[in-house]
Amino acid sequence: MTESARSARDAEAVSRFVESFAAQLVEAGMPRMPARVFAALLSSDEGAMTSADLGEQLRISPAAVSGAVRYLAQTHMVSREREPGSRRERYRVRGDQWYEALTNREAVLKRWEEALREGVTSLGADTPAGRRMAETLAFFEFVEREVVDMMERWRLYREKTFGPE
Predict the structure, then answer these.
(1) Are the beta carbons of 78 and 91 closer than 8 angstroms?
(2) What are the Cα distances from residue 56, in Å, to 18, 49, 113, 165?
(3) pLDDT confidence of residue 27
(4) Confidence band (pLDDT; 50, 70, 90) for 7?
(5) Which of 21, 42, 54, 71 has most Cβ atoms within 10 angstroms of its Cβ?
(6) pLDDT digits (tens, 9 = 90+) for 133-165
(7) What is the spatial distance between Cα 44 and Cα 35, in angstroms, rounded to a whole number?
(8) What distance in Å separates the CA atoms of residue 154 and residue 149, rounded to the nearest whole number?
């Protein structure tokens, strides 16, 4: 970002956005520190920041940044990259992070489906608990099919709206 573009930004407004959006993510179930780090990355023009940059902007410790980034990387919300010629890492959020995060949830759904199938067998399909388990399994199977179709529609819509990657 050029110096003039950097100075044209209202740092206080950006900070309010980061905290406000982070609060919404926390309300949806994301831990507080990863939510703040994600919102800061998302609001940066480059979509990437170092640990020091994040710590300075959010006024948090390197350990807090590290823990937040670990969570975000595990959930496929950010990626790590090395700065060229340096040992420092930068953390990046991409335009398709929501797609990646949702797509990677499919593995979790598959594991839940397997566990639920076992539950139906163990509890007995004709018991109240077994029927409840079978309905839960059917829901996850339905969601999985819908997500696959939805993600294909999103890919086409994204390409039409924002151009090829």
Answers:
(1) yes
(2) 14, 11, 43, 32
(3) 96
(4) low
(5) 54
(6) 999 999 999 988 898 898 889 889 999 999 987
(7) 14
(8) 9
Q: Is 62 helix (H, G, I), strand (E, B) or coil?
A: helix
| pLDDT of residue 50 exceeding 70 | yes
The tokens describing 33, both together, are 């520190």
- To the nearest 10 degrees (0 to 180), the angle between helices 97-123 and 128-162 is 170
Cα dihedral 41, 45, 47, 48, rounded to 10, equals -80
The pair of three-digit structure tokens given for residue 91, joined into one six-digit string: 């953390």
DSSP class per residue in 9-78: S-HHHHHHHHHHHHHHHHHTT--HHHHHHHHHHHHSSSSEEEHHHHHHHHT--HHHHHHHHHHHHHTTS-
Beta bridge partners of 49: 91
Burial class of residue 83 in the structure, from the number of CB atoms within 10 Å of its CB (0-12 exposed, 13-18 middle, 19+ buried): exposed
- Round to whole Å and give the CA distance between 44 and 48: 7
How far is residue 138's CA from residue 151's CA, in Å, rounded to a whole number?
A: 20
Kindly state the tokens that stand for 24: 């919404």
